[in-house]
What does this fold into?
Amino acid sequence: MNGQAFGQPPDTVSDVRPVAAIAVAPLGFTRRFKLLDWLQLKEQEPGWQRGTRKGHSQAPRVRSTVHPEGDRGGEGHGSSAPQAGPAEQGVASSGAESRVSSAASDSDSAARAPRKGRRRRRARRGKSPQAAGKQTSPSGQQAAPQASIRRPEPAESSPKPQRSQRNAARGDARRRGAPPPEAGQGEEPLYGALDLGTNNCRLLIARRSRDGFKVVDAFSRIVRLGEGLTASGRLSDEAMDRAVEALRICADKMRRRHVTRARLIATEACRIAGNGAEFIARVKRETGLVLEIVSNEDEARLAVAGCAPLLDRECASALVFDIGGGSTELIWVRHPANKDGRQQRPHIEDWTSLSCGVVTLAERHGGIEVSAELYDRMVAEVSERIAPFFARLQAARGEEGEGSFHLLGTSGTVTTIAGVHLGLPRYDRNQVDGIWITPADVHRVTRDLLALDYDTRAAHPCVGRERADLVLAGCAIFEAIALAWPAQRLRVADRGLREGILLSLMEADSARPRRRRRRRRGGKRASGEHSA
It folds into this structure.
């Protein structure tokens, strides 16, 4: 009020009532300034004096006090207040002092009103457990709504997610950007099986599944590692170069697929070659692969393990043969009787390994131009090698009927014959693996291939140029086997050593005892607690 403070108490009651009304009965924003104008006029009257300490202390309280009841009837305490006479001045003086002191205490409680407003706003925003209900005055009476000008509330930001929610979101993002299943994270480990034979280099990468395994990647290439081995007794430099190049590809595939367990084997060519050990060392040095030269017996067992799902359980026995590049394995398998309603594994009763394969037989007799007479000589040579094993089995079988066994062939020769028999426009493993054919079908296909020259055989989609000079040597080996064991049926298997390696690795891992974690309570194992 122009820098002037309130003076001493007025002489009349009429002059006191507006002052008490300002302190006791808070007013609205507009009415407050009307009263201030009235007080400014009253200061110019003779009865108002400037100066007491009490008046100075009351001025700020009058200005800053806003009572919740300011909207109700505050205007009646304005300039229309009645005037009092001089006789009432003493009474008014003492009454004014008491009313001003009570106004000071009421203004203190009114100054705390904005805090209640803040609590209400927090309650509405959910930051306080107190409900945004009506407040009561210290006297127990219900307080009226706040009538002062509210400060602008800060914009409410979206609540931050809880820590667990943020961690879950990060986990979802990591899962969306996780490495592929081949990395072996969160899934079954990958197994690798490599078979380096006299003619082929084959790789199979798979993971365990409910019905055996699921193939993830595969590789096959004809390398002719045993080329010229029969004449020289050593692996040639060209053949070793071809094999190392294919093995580099296999090593790269296994690294990219993150193969955890693998078995890499080498067969007949490395077994009989004079420089087989040197070649194994070179492979390790240049590719990082450690090849294992397996024995004939291991090779026979792996072949049976890979083909076992295709054995006919209705037959008492079967002859499994694997026509390779440098050797041919013959395995006589018997099916034990079921025990407790469960099928037993096939039992190998006898086996042999013939030191002749498609590569060695074709090098001795020729494979490009093959006449009927040359073909018969190859059949005769193989039959001569089979005779000792056949006699041994005959003595063990006795008078067993012809319908009690079947043939099961696993080799490139057998699958090629099946593809030609089906007339496939190109070789399809899904149509060949597991098919049943008869020895008469094989004889017919062999005669058809003999009637073709080398270029025509190489142009056949199921033969190709890489097998054109070897397929007839394989047919001669198969015909010798069919002559010794004239079965009614032959089952074709496009599987063998690699599948046997994978199944043996998975079976070995399943048989390993697994450590069980003991549950701990409070960081220590409770007494009497046992593992599940």
Summary: The chain has a mean pLDDT of 75.
